[in-house]
Amino acid sequence: MSGNYGRERLEAAYEVAVKVVFYNIAGIGHINPTLPLVKLWVENEAEVFYYSYPQRQALIETIGAKFFNYGYDEFSANDFNPGKNFVQQTFPATQGILPYLLQQAERERPDLIFYDSMAPWGYCVAKILGIPAICTVTTFALSREIRSRTFARFGLQKDEVNERALVHLRQEYGIALESIDALGCYAESNLVFTSQAFNPALGETSGKKFYFTGASCERNEDLTSFPLVKLAKLEKEKKVVYFSLGTILFSEDPRSIRIAQSLIEAFGHRDDCVVIISVGGADMVRNLGPLPDNVFAFAYVPQIEILKKYANIFVNHAGMNSLNEALHFSVPVLVLPHSKDQFINAERVVELGVGKSLNWEQATARNLGAAVSEILENPQYRENCRQFGFDQELKITELTKLFLGKIRGEPCARS
């Protein structure tokens, strides 16, 4: 494999169409923040190749990128270390799909690579072929200390499969990675879709640069199927409690319905509030049972619009996108962390005073009612949110100049 062709194309990058490759995982929370960036490259006549899972193909192609799978439609990181946490599957998956991705990259000859921080195969392709790379970080950017502590907290020890994968990457390609890099395989330049004030302190970064954009709220939402006019009339002089556990938890964890029903029990039939519930599917709406007049449940909710204009509190699962969007619009939160990085996010929410946190066992009608009421009645929570939602060091147009400069080989002016 040649490591020079990426540099050889630099001088010609403006005489022909720029080629950009994105490598991502399946999670919609990892893909959505990158879409405005993809759209920008497409609008600037770049040829964009986007690698992800087949269930995201339509979303990716809608904005003009060319979708590619990871060699076959049934690809799953689970195939390479079955039954383990996703964090323990990415290095074995990298070993498995890297030959295919290198072959593809030799054919595509990209000028720049973007890869998700939990897609180490993107890091490896860039390193092996000498292509400039940007790591997209849709979680917190985590220091070595926090990543090590998180590994210990959740018992993510390095097993034999990961040991073999790391040895293979080092011996075959000269790529030296550590187990903790599965929680953040960062590049020399990293794009973080949150505010620097909200992100935990990074400490020593070994020369790596992290660019914080704040929330990525530039996405098209379907407003035609949602009764915004009716909501606007209802919410006058009423508090709006918005509840969502993301796109998959209602279908994956049956406790989600119980928690939604507990919230309904706490706030249904009250004259001073409106409750909006997003459940991610028509079947789940029916599972909630009869709803009080002040409670509305939908398979789809235009979240940006609700947070921007209506919500007084957002009850959610501590997903990073949900938190970023809430803070961007100064909406305090009650978080119910479910897995992985969500516990780190929840701790940060409490630490900064932008909301409260309950675990799923604590999410009874009584506890939900008390926590939500406290946040609604104490204006300090909303005031604290204002400190963390708007410090956008780089806006999307500035990012264009930054990344074009990286293709040219120009030094980055901001860090």
Written account of the structure:
This protein is of the alpha/beta class and 415 residues long. 40% of the residues lie in helices and 14% in strands. The strands form two sheets. A seven-stranded parallel β-sheet has the order 3-2-1-4-5-6-7, sandwiched between helices. Strand 12, helix 15 (341-352) and strand 13 form a beta-alpha-beta unit. Helix 5 (90-108) crosses helix 6 (120-129), helix 5 packs parallel to helix 8 (160-173) and helix 11 (255-267) crosses helix 16 (365-377). The longest helix has 19 residues, at 90-108. The chain starts with a helix and ends in a 7-residue tail after the last helix. Mean pLDDT is 86; it is low at 1-15 and 411-415.
- How much helical structure, as a percent, in the residues? 40-55%
Evaluate the radius of gyration: 22 Å
Main sheet, how many strands, which sense, barrel? 7 strands, parallel
- Rounded mean pLDDT is 86
Gap from first CA to last CA: 32 Å
Number of helices: 18
Shape: globular
Number of strands: 13
Order of strands in the sheet with the most strands? Answer: 3-2-1-4-5-6-7
Uncertain runs are 1-15, 411-415
Question: Hey, roughly how much beta strand do the residues contain?
Answer: 5-15%
Content-based structural category: alpha/beta
Oligomer classification: single chain
